[in-house]
C-alpha cells in the first residue's frame, strides 16, 4: 500500500464509508491522512452519492466537499424532529395555552395522513393544540447545517417551506405558519405568513401550507420557522388544529446548474432535492 500513488490510494479509500475514513483510516499513517484530507477524495464521494454544490465563482475552498458529504444540506429537510417523533424536542415553545401541546400517534377525528401524502418514514406522529394558542418555533442556522454563505448570497437557491395541518371535524380551530429569513444579526430579510380558520364540521382532511422564497436579498443566514394553532370552541383537552411533517428545504431549479470541478460534467439536481 505504501508504494501506491496517491491517486490510486484515493480510488481505494473512496470505497470506505465516510465515518470509517474519519474515525479509523485517517490514523493509519501520514500518507493516508493526507489523501483522506484531500479535496479530490471527497469530490469523488460526493459525486458517487449525488451530493452537489452549485457551480459558481469563486470555487469552494478545500474542505467544503467533506462538509458537503457529511452534512448534505442541499438534499434534506433542515428542520429537526419534523414529525413529532420526539415530542417537542428541538423546538422552542413560544405559547403553551390551554392544556398545552399534545402528541398523537393516531390523529383523532381526522382522516389518516397517509391518504394525503406518501409516508417516507414510519412512525410519523402529529402535534395537536388546545383552547388557547399553542405556538412553537425552530431556527435553522444555515451555516451550522453546512450551507455555504456564497451559495445563499450568489446562487440563491429557492427556500421551500411547508407544513401539513388538519382540523378536527367536531371543532372549529385556527392555524398559522410564519417563516422569516434572517441575516446574521437576526434582522428580517423576507417573511411569509399563512393563516387558516375552520368552522365546526369543516375539518377532517389534511392540507399543506407551503411557500417558496425566491430572489431574496443576499445575507440570509437563518430561517425562523414558526407554527401554531388553537381550538375555537374553548373545549378542555386537545381539540385544536393538528400539524406535522414540517420542512425547510433548499431547492435548485433548472437555472441552478451544478457541477464538480474535477470532472467537468454537469448535472441537474434530482427532483427529490
Q: Please state roughly what percent of the residues sit in beta strands, choosing from under 5%, 5-15%, 15-25%, 25-35%, 35-45% or over 45%.
A: 25-35%
User: In one word, what is the shape?
Assistant: elongated
What structural class do the secondary elements suggest? Answer: alpha+beta
CATH-defined superfamily of the largest domain: Galactose-binding domain-like
Distance between the termini: 38 Å
CATH topology of the largest domain, by name, is Jelly Rolls
What does the main sheet amount to?
5 strands, antiparallel
- CATH secondary-structure class of the largest domain: Mainly Beta
User: How many strand elements?
Assistant: 12
- The strand line-up of the biggest sheet is 1-4-9-6-7
Tally of domains: 2
What is the mean predicted local confidence, pLDDT?
87
Which radius of gyration do the C-alpha atoms yield?
22 Å
Q: Which parts are unreliable, with pLDDT below 50 for 5 consecutive residues or more?
A: 258-273
Summarize the helix and strand pattern as letters. Answer: HHHHHEEEEHEEEEEEEE
**Helical stretch count?**
6
Helix proportion range? 10-25%
| CATH architecture descriptor text of the largest domain | Sandwich
Amino acid at each position: 500500500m505504501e508504494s501506491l500513488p496517491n491517486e490510486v490510494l484515493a480510488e481505494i479509500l473512496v470505497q470506505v464509508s465516510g465515518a470509517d475514513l474519519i474515525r479509523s483510516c485517517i490514523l493509519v499513517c501520514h500518507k493516508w491522512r493526507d489523501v483522506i484530507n484531500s479535496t479530490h477524495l471527497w469530490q469523488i464521494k460526493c459525486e458517487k452519492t449525488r451530493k452537489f454544490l452549485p457551480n459558481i465563482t469563486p470555487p469552494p475552498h478545500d474542505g467544503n466537499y467533506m462538509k458537503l458529504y457529511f452534512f448534505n444540506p442541499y438534499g434534506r429537510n433542515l428542520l429537526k424532529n419534523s414529525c413529532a417523533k420526539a415530542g417537542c424536542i428541538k423546538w422552542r415553545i413560544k405559547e403553551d395555552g390551554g392544556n398545552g401541546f399534545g402528541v398523537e400517534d393516531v390523529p383523532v377525528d381526522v382522516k389518516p395522513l397517509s391518504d394525503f401524502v406518501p409516508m417516507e418514514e414510519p412512525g410519523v406522529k402529529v402535534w395537536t393544540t388546545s383552547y388557547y394558542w399553542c405556538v412553537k418555533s425552530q431556527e435553522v442556522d444555515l451555516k451550522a447545517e453546512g450551507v455555504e454563505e456564497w451559495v445563499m448570497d450568489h446562487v440563491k437557491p429557492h427556500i421551500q417551506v411547508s407544513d401539513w395541518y388538519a382540523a378536527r371535524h367536531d371543532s372549529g380551530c385556527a392555524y398559522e405558519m410564519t417563516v422569516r429569513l434572517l441575516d446574521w444579526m437576526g434582522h428580517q430579510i423576507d417573511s411569509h405568513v399563512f393563516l387558516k380558520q375552520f368552522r365546526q364540521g369543516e375539518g377532517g382532511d389534511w392540507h399543506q401550507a407551503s411557500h417558496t422564497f425566491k430572489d431574496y436579498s443576499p445575507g440570509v443566514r437563518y430561517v425562523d420557522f414558526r407554527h401554531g394553532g388553537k381550538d375555537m370552541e374553548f373545549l378542555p383537552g386537545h381539540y385544536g388544529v393538528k400539524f406535522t411533517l414540517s420542512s425547510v428545504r433548499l431547492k435548485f431549479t433548472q437555472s441552478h446548474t451544478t457541477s464538480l470541478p474535477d470532472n467537468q460534467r454537469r448535472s441537474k439536481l434530482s427532483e427529490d432535492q
